[in-house]
Specification:
single chain, two-stranded antiparallel sheet, rod-shaped, alpha+beta, 8 strands
Length: 251
């Protein structure tokens, strides 16, 4: 029984099973159609060519006298001749006409998208915010756009002037109350609020200096609350004059 082994096509590396009878002959690959000679693997020599024995009883006796052990011989031949490793795949030759951008659309002025709001061309396909009108192509909204004059120093000063005057007024009230604390005693002396029954000196209807000091302080506090609120809003909340638009929204 002939020994079989595996060879690889040198063109497409497809493995083909052949027998030792094909050594030295040419075979055709079923995968790519390549014709190549069959070479015996290492450890297996080509089968010698012998003349055919004459037909008759002599041939039969020779066959009966020396039967060939097909099974063990085949096993030994298979163990002695392992299949060769397939050759490395061929690297395709570079194509001179290959262009990586051949099928990639290039961005030019004709293919770039336009803003749905102002129709200006966007810089690229991935642009989200239009630089001309501020339109957001994802949220489908646009912030308010307006042009205003920058306030001058004179306008800012005139805007803050009422708050400055209120601060000066509060300072003046505090200074006034400081002098009023001592002046009220002199003002009540020999006045019709003073009771003539003294000493000690008393006043009619509890109109003593302490009475006037207390109610004078309460009046100042009551008057200062709205003034302080106005000063806070003008200095810290809305410290710039109203905006003056150059013109209305262009879009």
């Amino acid at each position: 029984m002939a020994t079989t082994f595996v060879i690889a096509c040198p063109e497409c590396s497809k493995q083909v099973k052949v027998s030792e009878e094909h050594v030295g002959k040419k075979v055709r690959c079923k995968g790519c159609g390549e014709i190549f000679p069959v070479k015996a693997p290492d450890g297996l020599s080509a089968a010698p060519k012998t003349k055919a024995a004459p037909a008759g009883p002599a041939k039969a006796r020779a066959t009966q006298a020396a039967p060939a052990p097909a099974g063990p011989a085949k096993s030994r031949a298979t163990q002695a001749a392992p299949p060769p490793a397939p050759p490395p795949p061929k690297t395709p030759a570079p194509d001179e006409d290959y262009d990586p951008n051949k099928y990639t659309p290039a961005e030019d002025m004709d293919t770039l998208p336009r803003c749905p709001f102002c129709a200006h061309q966007l810089p690229s396909h991935d642009t989200r915010i239009c630089l001309e009108c501020g339109y957001d192509t994802v949220k489908r909204s646009r912030p308010e756009v307006k042009q205003i004059y920058a306030p001058t120093f004179g306008e800012i000063f005139l805007w803050l002037l009422p708050a400055i005057l209120c601060v000066l007024f509060l300072i003046g009230v505090i200074v006034w109350y400081y002098f009023f604390w001592d002046l009220i005693v002199d003002w009540l002396d020999d006045s019709w609020f003073e009771d003539e029954k003294g000493p000690p000196k008393t006043y009619l209807a509890a109109a003593s200096p302490s009475f006037f000091r207390l109610y004078h302080a309460l009046f100042i506090i009551f008057m200062s609350v709205p003034i302080i609120r106005f000063i806070y809003r003008r200095f810290f909340v809305n410290n710039l004059p109203p905006e003056k638009k150059i013109k209305e929204d262009l879009f």
